[in-house]
Amino acid sequence: IGEWTLPGARFPLEMAQDEDAGSNSLLTYELTSNPSFSLALNENPGGKMQPEIVLERALDREKQSSFELVLTAVDGGDPARSGTVQVHINVTDLNDNQPVFSKRVYEARVAENLPAGSLVLRVVATDADAGSNGRVSYSFGSVPDGVRLLFTVDSESGEVRTASPLDFEEKSKYSFRLEARDGGGLTSHCEVYGIQVGIMDINDNAPSFREAETELRMSETTAPGSRFPLPDAHDPDSGRNSLQSYELSGDEHFSLAVQAGPGGDQRPELVLAKALDREEAAFHELVLRASDGGDPARTGTARIRVTVLDANDNAPVFSQAEYTVRVAEDVPVGSTLVSVLATDADEGPYGEIKYS
């Protein structure tokens, strides 16, 4: 009991148990006579009497630091039976100072690739009291469960360390409360916030395309200069570590243009640089490469397949420009005189040939 406790304060004591029934289990209590304390009985909801010690006068630890009392429980049997328990009262020194943090707000910035167990920051709280009243321990205040999975706090040193790897792409900032408690039960809180894992983002993600392969279909009559949208890449990193550039390779018929999107993002476009000829090449294989600005840079690729659609841009061609046939004058009607052959480089209906 603290020496600052005001007279009239009550302190519940342990209730005695009696396995008998009826009047044999009806208990009354007695307390050793002492001018500083008296006994009060408080009836609980179950009808049993709860013994309580009542402080009758102010305590002074410097005059008397402890008291030894005896609580006796007597049942209602005939003859009555009793049991006793020792009540040892320690008078504690006045804990009139709570811990005080060196800062109200602590800030830290760490890299997201910090290994588990790495130091994030150290908080310091001091207490002007002496002994256990001045001994400070640290713990989390009321924080989400996710914080406890990512961070630990050493109760003695106040060091906050990582408990598991951090991920900037999952969350870039954490805010939570730390608590300092002295040996007398007084507490103080500080806010720890602004743990910005994003400031020191690590280039741990390469740009990636949602589709690894894309097919474009265009007619061989498509005019040079025509543009076609290409799939864009995504990079969850930030700053220079995010997506920076695109590059196209694979065929001289095509070039790359990059336009700025509504949000400032880059939108790649395929530009037809040279007229197509399906009869020369029915397919074109291209590679679109996206690169970030990390050091070293990381890249992602997508394959672009251009299918050239046929146009009726070829006339049939005979295998010979002129056929000479010598026929006897008495050849029967209906006889085959000669077979001619023409071919067409187009496909489908454009390549079907009729003779007349």
UniProtKB/TrEMBL annotation:
Pfam families: Cadherin
Keywords from the UniProt entry: Calcium, Cell adhesion, Cell membrane, Glycoprotein, Membrane, Repeat, Signal, Transmembrane, Transmembrane helix
InterPro entries hit by this protein: Cadherin-like_dom, Cadherin-like_sf, Cadherin_CS, Protocadherin/Cadherin-CA
Primary localization class, coarse: membrane
Biological processes per GO annotation: homophilic cell adhesion via plasma membrane adhesion molecules
Lineage: superkingdom: Eukaryota
The Cadherin domain, residue ranges: 16-101, 102-209, 210-318, 319-356
Region entry Disordered, spans: 216-245
Compartments in which it is found: Cell membrane
PROSITE patterns given in the database record: CADHERIN_1, CADHERIN_2
Membrane topology: Single-pass type I membrane protein
UniProt GO cellular component terms: plasma membrane
GO MF: calcium ion binding
Name of this chain's protein: PCDGF protein
Source organism (scientific name): Cisticola juncidis
Gene it is expressed from: Pcdhgb3
